[in-house]
Amino acid sequence: MLEATQAVDGGVGVLHIVKNYTGDVMNFEMSAEMAEGTEVRSVVIDDDVAVQDSLYTAGRRGVGATVLAEKICGGAAEDGKSLDEVTELCERVNTNAKSMGMALTSCIVPSAGEPTFELGDDEMEIGIGIHGEPGRERKKVASASEVTAMLTRPILDDLGLGEGDEVLAFVNSMGGTPLMELYIVYAELAALLGDRGINIGRNLVGPYITSLEMQGCSITVLKLDDEMKNYWDAPVNTAGLRWGL
Known about the structure:
By secondary structure, this protein is of the alpha+beta class. It has two domains: 2-95, Dihydroxyacetone kinase, domain 1 (Rossmann fold, 3-Layer(aba) Sandwich), CATH 3.40.50; 99-225, 2-Layer Sandwich (Hypothetical Protein Tm841, Chain: A,domain 3). 33% of the residues lie in helices and 26% in strands. The chain has helices at 22-34, 65-78, 83-95, 144-159, 179-195, 226-233, and strands spanning 2-6, 12-19, 39-45, 97-103, 123-126, 137-140, 166-173, 199-206, 216-223, 236-237, 242-243. The strands form three sheets. The chain has a six-stranded mixed sheet. A three-stranded mixed sheet has the order 1-2-3, with helices on both faces. A two-stranded antiparallel ribbon has the order 10-11. Helix 2 (65-78) packs across helix 6 (226-233). The protein is globular, with a radius of gyration of 18 Å. The model has no long low-confidence stretch (mean pLDDT 91).
């Protein structure tokens, strides 16, 4: 993901918003080296609380917070913020956003032609990644309430959220989960946050960062501040997000 904004000297600077996967990081580093004469910054998104290290990453994976960072930082860039300011905002979004996902089925990567992992009809995978990676534990299928709690509690513990905090709550389809089921999860998430006195200031529900046809969902919670809210609300007209026009 590239965000262009006016640099301090009046030229164009570029911010790379990169999910924390080894291949992604390497390729964006190479592209930065190729961008001669252009000031380039990079923020690596590592919001997944499920896995510290995996076959694909050193450290936490980048998942749902990428969508939020792109929208918020895109609004700031559109508003003419400097490259330093947009970079700092992106780092703040990454620090204050955490995610976790689950799956009822694996996806089938076209080059492989078979599921990345196998699940029984009565099983679910907790802590999956967006490239079809298996999670950190396998459990028997549970209710929407129980699944939402499994995903949300580690997020809230990691962020240290408490009564009076305001958040953006993002419930995402992994590709094969219908919108109706996502709203069931969102209702459970809203109730869980409400019980802790945490206010949902903004929300997003839908298929925004998917893993082909994987059936499952992820939850991302971002602790909001006024600047984040301002640029989240800013007009947007893209294939995925459209409002304020």
